[in-house]
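Internal ticket - ligand job 479, alpha-D-glucopyranose:
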Amino acid sequence: MRKKKILFVASEAVPFASSGGLGDVIGSLPAALQNASSGEMDVRVIMPLYGSMKDEHRAKLTKLCDTYINLSWRRQYLGIYLLNHNGVTYYFLDNEYYFKRPTLYGSFDDGERYAFFCKAVMESLPIIEFFPDVLHAHDWQSALTVIYLRQRYAWMDGYKNIKSVFTIHNIAYQGVFGHEILGDVFDLSPEDRGVVDYNGAINLMKGAIVCANTVSTVSPTYAMEILSPRFSNGLHHVLEQNKGKLRGILNGIDVDYYNPSNDTEVFANFGIGDIEGKAKNKKELQKMLGLAESPDTPLIAIISRLTGHKGIDLVMAAAEEILRDDVQLIILGQGDYAYEDFFWHLADNHKGKVSTLLMYNKDVSKKIYAGADIFLMPSKSEPCGLAQMIASRYGTVPIVRETGGLYDSIKDIGWVDGGNGFTFAPYSEVELLNSVKRACGLYAQKETWNALVKKVMSVDFSWDKSALTYISMYNDILA
Ligand code: GLC
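stdout (structure tokens):
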């Protein structure tokens, strides 16, 4: 049988470039899909070649070609590189003017950078000789590939039979730009305006929702939530009209990369059978961060982008009350200045009790996942969330708010069939505080707590199940 060809289009993938959950998913789902399909699917990834790629990976790149492509009136250099990693083929699109920047996103010309990327993806297919059966684009940065496919390439040889999937990892980032750059930057013509037009502006995510054969998002609950104005960031009308092609598939994590029993980043390895190693991690973590080395104080961690939808304002409102008790708090993340400032001062005012690390660092995060007791994730909205799964894998019991993928992955210990964490529904600091108190209360009962830690660690958050759901989605599209 001919292998089914799937091409992931994305702006980041672990370990090459990552700013959050998207990178984790793109770095792990392709291999999971290949394994789950017993080799019936050839899943490849195409992404930008960022200046920040580590030398160890850069050294393994093979150059496929140098060429030039058009983006509206521009003629821009395009280099195409290839790399095999964990059995998956990655293509990297090179243009230093666009991608050699200090950060992945946040440049004034992000619209142009990702328009170039998307145009380059479309132009690369004949060069890499890989016309996929399914082009699977992720988030707004890749949305234009789905739009170009339907509006520009669908009648061309090679492209004719390509079906498309667009996955929304976070509806809060839609790629919104003024209409004046429709032709000049996005290389679209006035006839395409209706496809991307939304609320008087160009909305790339909207365009991809309209053009894709299937639209998916990263949890079943989020798929329902984004049909309502409370969660849709304005896109509910479009999603309602395209409801028939909307699916929600829960993310998994790479359980080999996140594996406490052989992780080289943590202070001591441990597993379900020997959770004692966790105590060593806690001790070393406390030492590293200047917290009091107190083994019996519940250590609460937050690892998150510090932005509104992560529920950070609830933590701020409850912080002093939480810190009245014998607890320790670690915050790792960066984001809005007001949040960063708050946590910086909180740590300053509670030396030895609170530690704030205003950064995004995978290695440090693993030490925290391994050393903390309780993981706090009170998101206002959460498409899927991976941190609660990673924390669980490292035996750190999650407290989450019941929304999106948090609701789909964590059930309260009071749940009929027992649960794997602590949850609350109303978006209120009182509810948050309550859950923290419940968790700390149980933490004091060592045996019950250790049983919960083991239970939490044994939950299967691997891709195994969801990969099969993706495969059946592709099969439906290609049927
Ligand atoms: C985004 C979402 C997060 C999700 C991740 C991967 O970062 O905010 O909830 O887990 O994408 O899909």
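Auto-summary: The chain has 19 helices and 18 strands. The domain at 4-252+464-478 is CATH 3.40.50.2000 (Rossmann fold).
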